[in-house]
């Protein structure tokens, strides 16, 4: 088993997908242990650390990477299996941010109303008990919610020589902010440039559907990911697979277009996995699929279309890549 | 216990909310046993029964009702607790329909492309085994999926002297098409006219999130609902409550506005239930709420915002109406 | 020439399309002289008359009518030619309104931000000089802009037994708020119920594209309209014609769907008027049509698609109804 | 007068804004004569030259540039005054393109319907008579429409180290596709990187509002542009000025957000030019502004907000840069 560890120095963090050279090279089959900073670059640590003061645009939402995957070429698919995602600190943070979030005017949903107050919330992270503790800023209300770690941002270099801010989700991945991207999940990403150039960041201890206020329970993470490559197979939009489900994603505005992309991909993927006629697949997905919301606050919105593999009579997508990486994951977890 | 049974004659079915007189009167505290036809009026029973041929606009999506609730006035809230929702037949049906559904041009998302093929699927409904059986039209693929009965359409007469087609969801309820509206759930609807005038229809044996092809596993239902009235309490958009969650709905286009309405209502409702400051409630909902998609195919789209009551330290909304109706439900189910 | 005059008493004003009986009957070929109140029911006359205080929901945007047109049946088209639209007073008014308008959160684009200030602006209307005079509320800035009177609201009873608030534009017409609806224009509306039941209201002395703050230069109007009926010809969405252009409208959300409806109708109408293949018509409209924005503030948004008749080699739509009514208009104006 | 001429070799054409070095350097005050290829790279010249066959993604919509403007730094505004835009050939071309355009499903408005036919239309361009000649593909219909040359694409390198395909309009400019960008107009663009790095392309002989079929009357152009720099003045979104109007643009999805951005910018710009309170400016723009549609087919949609300078009591934005460049233009045109 080939294991690589990487801890980025602050100046090594990336703020785009595309447009910069790799920080490292890995071979397919490698397990990568890496550290990711939180979306504020670790600068928001107290109630007075308002993001608009301590963070500087565009140095937001740093990602760790990019990593060059040996042998990856346009037309291939990169598989990233998340072996573990663990909070690196015993605290996490969330905030409102002026003109950001779903229940406020923004720079594109432009309004004349003044922004909402900018407020910081601090969470205790109890890794033993597997909970985070919410504490109201005004009043005594407190409650524990389950720890459910995930990465908001994962992606590769975009097509067409583009470079995109990490905040933006699109066909290359990016800031999809879906709680489905947790440990035990394999992410499939279409490769657009030699080496794929994947990066990972924006850990969340947990997140509601849509990240309605604009930020989740933001945390630095220690994450372990297994890397694989499926040669000669394209993937139009990021896809996910866990032991029981396959999932398609779509990122666009308005939100119904994100829904359409994700459902369209799940229908056509279902058709190719099962041999079903496209309308038969449309019908099956219509009755069997869930549509967990990713984000409704970023520069594109993200929806996920998710169906139990059992409803498809249990296909093995991408030549059983998920199963292979699950085995590698077990091996890693039992031998480290 | 006051129990009323109602089986509509075909000519008694309604096709609007508002604009017609009540078919019956009920007192708060009544249990109503009723029959609802499927969205095709029961006319699609075989592969040749194309809806565009056997159904006639606007006689689509019939509802049973409206019922006048004694004492209900504008400014009150009607509570409907679904005691049971059971398929009335051993089959159900789904179809595509020309220029209807999320992955086709429609009359409003107007396109020059020809419509998709109109196809009928028939489902076996096994009420013992609690499954429906999908069978592909082209090929041998078949699979069972869990039976999860729900009503797509429930609502009251709209405000402002409006009458709306039953197909449209809005602040008065209507065709929200959320799978969350299953047995065990209490629905809260703001009353707009004397007597509230509620109706129920559009039963589904199960439904994916968004009803992407435009129709679910459509079925006639035998449904039992307990009726209650909360005087002097307004409800801006339909809300739901089950034993573990409270839920807000929003129906609008684009889909992000349906999301915004539902999340906004859940934030302000959370604030009033917990005493939390509005921004504190925004933060809590951001990390704790799910957003199950209702429909992305009707004339308005519907989103639901859903949070565990435990995260709110277990409030008792509407003066414990859900608990009261739960008790009534148990009583009904054990004594009938 | 058959001329009818109608001045509604306050209690005769309508607040819906559909759902109420006619205030009068007219034969095709009739010229109707009528008075319309402003959208505030004439209650906003000074800086202190905030609409949220002096107006009562749903008694907003009153229309004059409905009029029963003899012989009109579903499947026909009603033609209304606006002979003249003249401000009835020497003042007009505009306001902001809480949570209404394009640059503020609204009840559907729901936000947590407080509303904008509610402010009233009064305009002098100089009917001789054909200008309105804007005067800033805070400061001395003043400017004259051309008087360009129009009706925001015109429509018939909707299909499917619906009744809709006058504020809503849809396939039946309603509150389209397009500045293209000025004197000299013929409006074509598909008939949904016997007698058509048309109403007119919401006069504007002038309006920018989109009515961005939510209200125009609102004024009571003395309006003269010639009524005609085209038997056996359907009209899917409201259409307009002036001496030089034909226009299609679409009302929906999001705004691109209003655009799609209007352009789709103009393409298919162009095809039927010229005999062009549908893709050839698509190409011609693509290069030749303007898309004046109606409203981006109402419950549906409205777009207009407008092409010079010269680009279509000057067809005569609806059997030259516009020309016929133009002649009637000239006769009326020269003989009154 | 400093005049520079530039004719790009095919391999010098650019397909992104950002991400590549300048092809030349110019000082403020320079007049640049340049050639731009059409959006198909000149490869579509006959009915058989289907874009999907003769063009290769992502080598679409080439632009000429980028040019480094000496002294330009982030925080400045670049002014580009279009002295002339003249078709370089006596023909132009338009097409449909699979899954592109407003009346078809696309890659984001994803649908299961097959694409529309891909068809090429050729236009004669009569530069003397100032017309283009449309000729139907199926049938004899032909018509002349006025020549009204414009550039669909103009922009600078984006902020935040991004590189964007030229097809995308956003805050940096790009493929706005507004017919308002014709000769006699000054475009203002916020500078994001040293040298600004502006490029120009996508000439249209004329275009309808929204470019509904996805392409305009596409043509190579000989264009003359005067370059100026306003130091220390920011511009959030591209703005335009002609002799009689100022204009703001917005590019986003859904279309109402493009509208909101453009109107919001025009309101705040009006406020700063006139000293009007923001709500007073909101009111004035509401009654005085037009909203010509740019595109409703690209990856972002574009709207323009346009108001006569007379309604603002004739301010001189950007320290009369437009007037200065108008004078330079006159000088150039009379002395070349």
From TrEMBL, chains A, B, C, D:
InterPro entries: FmdA_AmdA (IPR004304)
UniProt name for this protein: Acetamidase/formamidase family protein
Organism field: Sphaerisporangium corydalis
């Amino acid at each position: 088993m080939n294991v690589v560890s990487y801890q980025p120095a602050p100046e090594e963090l990336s703020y785009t997908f595309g447009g910069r050279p790799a920080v490292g090279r890995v071979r397919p089959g490698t397990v990568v242990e890496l550290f990711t900073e939180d979306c504020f670059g670790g600068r928001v640590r107290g109630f007075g650390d308002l993001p608009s003061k301590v963070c500087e645009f565009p140095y937001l939402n740093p990602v760790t990477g990019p990593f060059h995957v040996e042998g990856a070429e346009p037309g291939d698919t990169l598989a990233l299996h998340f072996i573990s995602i663990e909070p690196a600190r015993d605290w996490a943070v969330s905030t409102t941010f002026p003109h950001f979030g779903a229940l406020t005017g923004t720079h594109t949903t432009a309004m004349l109303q003044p922004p909402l107050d900018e407020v910081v919330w601090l969470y205790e992270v109890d890794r033993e008990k597997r909970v985070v503790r919410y504490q109201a800023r005004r009043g005594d209300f407190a409650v524990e919610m389950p720890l459910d770690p995930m990465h908001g941002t994962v992606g590769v270099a975009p097509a067409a020589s583009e470079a995109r801010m990490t905040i933006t989700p699109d066909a290359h991945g990016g800031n999809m902010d879906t709680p489905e991207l947790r440990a035990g999940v394999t992410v499939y990403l279409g490769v657009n440039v030699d080496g794929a150039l994947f990066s990972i960041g924006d850990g969340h201890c947990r997140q509601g559907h849509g990240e309605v206020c604009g930020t989740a329970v933001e945390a630095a993470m220690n994450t372990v990911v297994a890397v694989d490559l499926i040669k000669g197979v394209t993937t139009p939009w990021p896809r996910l697979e866990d032991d029981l489900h396959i999932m398609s994603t779509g990122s666009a505005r308005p939100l119904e277009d994100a829904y359409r992309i994700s459902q369209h991909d799940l229908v056509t993927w279902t058709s190719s996995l099962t041999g079903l006629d496209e309308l038969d697949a449309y019908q099956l997905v219509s009755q069997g699929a869930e549509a967990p919301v990713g984000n409704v606050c970023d520069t594109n919105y993200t929806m996920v279309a998710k169906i139990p593999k059992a409803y498809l009579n249990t296909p093995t997508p991408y030549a059983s890549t998920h199963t292979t990486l699950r085995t590698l994951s077990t091996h890693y977890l039992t031998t480290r």
